[in-house]
Give the backbone structure.
Amino acid sequence: MTAGSLVAVSRSEDDRTPGDGTVPPDLNLLRTFLAVHRSGSFTAAAQLLGLSQPTVTTQIRSLERQTGRELFERLPRGVAPTAVADELAARIAAPLDALAEATGHGSPARARPAPVHLAGPAELLATRALPALAPLVARGVRLRVTEGLSDRLLDELRAGRHDLMIATSRPRGRTLSAVPLVDEEFVLVAAPALAGGLRARLAADGPGALHGVPLLAYAEDLPIVRRYWRHVFGRRLNCRAAVSVPDLRAVLALVVAGAGFSVLPRYLCEDDLASGALALLDEPEDAPINTGYLVRRPGTSDNPHVALVHDRLLEAARAW
């Protein structure tokens, strides 16, 4: 394959805009473009190509001037390809890779894939997802992890800031692909010293027995606790949190220390329940369950490590 045939597939007559001339883009610009498209950022592409980040930025701007089209939307973290960029990448990827292999240089963007950007709840990432991904890290997969609430992370995923995300609810719309990953069972718990008297009172008097006992929660609007109250007790929760801290591991530590009661995912506190450091206040036949989803933007990443992480998480989740 010659450079001339590569250029022929990289630009058609329909793609040229008035006044942009007939000189095709330089192959170096196309290589840089493809590295940015595959890695999702100018910085990552610069590392793959052995260039400085300003050089990559200059080359992409030069290619945009030559084509007369915007190729990437600049985001707070990285870039998102436009539809024009996706179309161009689809035309030039195979010829560029073939040319690189024919000349003995290989494809930098494929030789060392960019890091996989994974997002999700801090607790589930720390206790389940990241330990499951340890074998991939040992094999050279690089991860960049962001913790936070699902609504914000889903918006960032749509904008291209993440490759994969664990969401606590199924995302709406058709721009994201989601598969069920894990079911969380919620349990009502307290330290044994506190639970002894509360359990009997709760069985006799219902949830009103917990009025006056400090409630420890993940968020001020008490989403997990309210869900438990509706599902198990069939009524609305009418109290405020004594402590609100956006980390369920911190809530767990407070409960174990005897500060009050809370509703927590069973996976997070099962060791403390087994050891006796924590006690169940209630054991309903039908405990509330929440399904977590593994979410990605379909067709937006050529990084093969994204698929590796995706498949490994689904495989590991069968044992969670």
The two ends are 50 Å apart (CA to CA). The mean pLDDT is 86.
